[in-house]
Amino acid sequence: MKSFVSQIVGRLDIDSGSTRVGLVTYASNVGTVINLNDYNTATAFQAAVSSLVYASGATYTNRALQYVRTTMLTSAAGDRGNASNIVVVLTDGQSSDRPATQVSH
Questions:
Q1: What percent of the chain is modeled with pLDDT above 90?
Q2: N or C: which end of the chain has fewer CB within 10 A?
Q3: Could you report the per-residue pLDDT of 54-87, keeping only the tens digit for each?
Q4: Domain 2-95 top-level CATH class
Q5: Is 64 exposed, middle or buried (0-12, 13-18, 19+ CB in 10 A)?
Q6: What secondary structure, in 3-state letters, does 36-93 show?
Q7: CA dist., res. 53 & res. 32, Å (int)
Q8: Domain limits of the chain?
């Protein structure tokens, strides 16, 4: 997964400042957080991803998504109101709390 994320980030235009990338690891709780304004080069972000350590536990995808919505996608964490937000979820399987993870329309 770290290699996959690193390859994707390497294709994004982070160095010019037009793209920002953040990352949240999660298991039973939210773990490592890289905010959207923490790194301004692809190389620095890739180095941070390389140093991540796997955290075992349940798969509470709902907690990670809630954190992204309420904390990461804020101006304090580097979100820009004039930029589109795209969230990609990589998971090791099914959420441990499927009803809380589902989005209702």
A1: 91
A2: C
A3: 888 999 999 999 999 999 999 999 999 999 999 9
A4: alpha beta
A5: buried
A6: CCCCCCHHHHHHHHHCCCCCCCCCCHHHHHHHHHHHHCCHHHCCCCCCCCCCCCCCCC
A7: 9
A8: 2-95
